[in-house]
């Protein structure tokens, strides 16, 4: 897969690079609940965190069985890209250099039409599984079909190891290559938009500060205050599904100079 870094003909011509850090809030209109918001999953059921915590998952077959049932019924499979995802893809199609750094694992940016090479999935993807022993990867759909057929905790078909979602669980570190590319984008962009994220989970949240330190104009689109609001040129509290498309249309019309009037 091609690198989602900052090279490319459009960027070389001097056009403004827009970096978008997206969190769970951008996907709630698609029916995928967030995790840390007022109605977030972790607030409603703190025990659910164990299902996505690496040490618990690896040590306890019952946790794994429950995790597979959670995956089987995930809202992700019925979700469709919403207006915010489509607006990001439309900005890219307008000719503006765009890179998305997402904390989400739902793949909705790609389903909306954004080229996969322009999306950095910091926390991995729920659409694949990976073996914890041999690291073989395969589509999640195949593993879920095995669960539906009666395998409560399906092992790797290559080596018999423990399978997990190809997401970054609690207790796992981010892929250093992906994180390094995200840092490079944060340093190179002129506009950094943080949308639908509390900017509390590190190291992803630090990308906003890195962007500002390197001269980018920070715009925060989120329902609740974030620790980086004071660094932002603009903070937007309106619903993401209407606020982000409006913002990105202005950026495209103005050649991405900023967010006047926000």
Task: Give keywords.
disordered C terminus, alpha/beta, six-stranded parallel sheet, disordered N terminus, three-stranded antiparallel sheet, Rossmann fold, SIR2/SIRT2 'Small Domain'
Structure description:
The protein has 262 residues and is of the alpha/beta class. The chain folds into two domains: 1-32 and 81-123 and 173-262, 3-Layer(aba) Sandwich (Rossmann fold), CATH 3.40.50; 37-78 and 124-167, SIR2/SIRT2 'Small Domain' (2-Layer Sandwich), CATH 3.30.1600. 33% of the residues lie in helices and 16% in strands. The chain is built from ten helices and nine strands. It has a six-stranded parallel β-sheet with strand order 3-2-1-7-8-9, with helices on both faces. A three-stranded antiparallel β-sheet has the order 5-4-6. Helix 5 packs parallel to helix 10 and helix 8 packs parallel to helix 9. It is elongated, with a radius of gyration of 19 Å. The relative contact order is 0.17.
Helix content: 25-40%
Question: What is the CATH topology assignment of the largest domain?
Answer: Rossmann fold
Strand content: 15-25%
Taking the sheet with the most strands, its summary is: 6 strands, parallel
Count of individual domains? 2
**Structural classification:** alpha/beta
Spatial strand arrangement across the major sheet: 3-2-1-7-8-9
The CATH fourth-level homologous superfamily of the largest domain? TPP-binding domain
Morphology: elongated
The overall pLDDT, averaged over residues, is 89
Number-wise, the strands total: 9
Report the total helices.
10
- Helix and strand element order: HEHHHHEHEEEHEHEHEEH
Poorly predicted ranges: 1-14, 256-262
Distance between the termini: 36 Å
Q: What is the CATH architecture assignment of the largest domain?
A: 3-Layer(aba) Sandwich
